[in-house]
UniProtKB/TrEMBL annotation:
InterPro entries recorded: EGF_Rcpt_Signaling_Reg (IPR053202), FkbM_mtfrase (IPR006342), SAM-dependent_MTases_sf (IPR029063)
Entry keyword set: Membrane, Transmembrane, Transmembrane helix
Keyword Nucleotide-binding attached: no
Domain Methyltransferase FkbM: 170-322
GO terms for cellular component: endoplasmic reticulum membrane; Golgi apparatus; late endosome membrane; plasma membrane
Transmembrane segments: 6-26
Record's protein name: Methyltransferase FkbM domain-containing protein
Pfam family, one: Methyltransf_21
UniProt cross-references to Gene3D superfamilies, sorted A to Z: Vaccinia Virus protein VP39
The keyword DNA damage is assigned to this record: no
GO biological process, one term: endoplasmic reticulum to Golgi vesicle-mediated transport
Length: 354
């Protein structure tokens, strides 16, 4: 009897020991699994960071290949310069860029002393201000449609004859779709170029359109130098340079870049279309352009808010070798574009009258 009790006790002790050993083994296994999970989590994060860097590198290469096929537009900036900016892009570049544009942080004072032909200014625009297009597979899937007031239909039909792969610059780009004079050209005919929009909310919406363009969150200077100017932010189209309104929560200082400096930054002085809608300062910007050094075939310019009036704009453009594109009564009725805008065509560019 005592032997049986002793045997039972020993058996129980063995079971307890086995259970304790199993418990310790399971605890060690659990700790090991936790360590492995932590290692895997850190590895996953590292892989995600590497994937982001790799994606941006592929994006750089794809953008450069795409732009290089577009009549030299690929000379915007070298691949080496793009790679140096990977960390900025991975860290949500456009927020950093907007943060720079809307403050007086250095080197604003130095920049405002630079002439529009300065190589240093060109480099600054390329490396600090441009936001580059996404990979082709990530670009917009929106259907091609004319979102302008009718200007684009007139330009395509009478001037460019459905020209493909053209180059544009649009200033006052808003959200990249509303009243856009370039969206249809890009989606239907493969054009590309630069969208300029200083209002931060509109610029963020513009980036979300994922268009195949360079984007820049700035305004155009009214002199040959960058200018820090008071800018009133309104709803979409009502944002403007405002030297009269006192500074408030709706007004901030914005750094404006000369138009010619942006042309230098993309290494092109010949463009097919320049669309300019900046709520009254259009003529001031046009006066900064060295017309003998550029070749702009067509301009769409809003005259509605120019203080000197529509005739002053037309007289200036005529003096630079441009003809006013005539709008028919039918086009005015359909698009109403002539009420707001003038279209100017370089005199050596033939019109399709059919």
């Amino acid at each position: 009897m005592q032997r049986m009790a002793l045997a039972q006790l020993l058996a129980n002790g063995v079971c307890v020991a086995l259970l304790m050993g199993l418990y310790i083994a399971l605890s060690n296994l659990k700790d090991n699994v936790s360590r492995q999970e932590s290692i895997l989590l850190r590895a996953r994060h590292r892989v995600e960071r590497l994937e982001a860097v790799y994606l941006q590198k592929r994006r750089s290469e794809a953008v450069m290949q795409s732009l290089e096929s577009n009549a030299g537009f690929g000379d915007v900036v070298g691949l080496e310069g793009r790679v140096k900016r990977l960390e900025i892009h991975v860290a949500n570049a456009h927020e950093l860029l907007i943060g720079f544009i809307y403050t007086k942080a250095p080197p604003v004072d130095e920049l405002t002393a630079l002439d529009q032909e300065s190589d240093r200014l060109t480099q600054h625009i390329r490396e600090k201000l441009f936001v580059y297009p996404p990979l082709p597979i990530l670009q917009t899937t929106l259907l091609a449609r004319d979102t302008s007031r009718g200007e684009v239909g007139a330009v395509l039909r009478h001037i460019f004859r459905d020209k493909k792969n053209g180059l544009f610059i649009e200033c006052g780009a808003l959200d990249g779709l509303t009243l856009s004079n370039t969206f249809y050209l890009e989606r239907l005919l493969g054009w590309t170029g630069v969208l300029i929009e200083p209002e931060p909310n509109s610029f963020n919406e513009l980036l979300q359109r994922k268009r195949n363009v360079l984007s820049i969150p700035t305004c155009l200077s009214r002199s040959r130098h960058p200018q820090l100017v008071p800018f009133t932010f309104g709803w979409h189209a009502y944002s403007r340079i405002d030297t009269l309104t006192p500074m408030s929560e709706h007004t901030n200082n914005v750094l404006c870049m000369p138009f010619f400096a942006i042309l230098k930054a993309i290494n092109r002085t010949d463009i097919d279309l320049f669309s300019l809608d900046i709520e009254g300062h259009e003529l001031d910007v046009l006066r900064t352009i060295p017309w003998e050094e550029v070749d702009i075939k067509v301009l769409i310019v809003e005259h509605f808010n120019i203080a000197e009036g529509k005739q002053a704009l037309e007289d200036f453009m005529t003096s630079k070798g441009y003809a006013v594109f005539p709008s028919t009564a039918e086009e005015r009725m359909k698009g109403q574009w002539a009420e707001f805008d003038d279209i100017f065509v370089k005199k050596d560019v033939g019109l399709n009258e059919s």
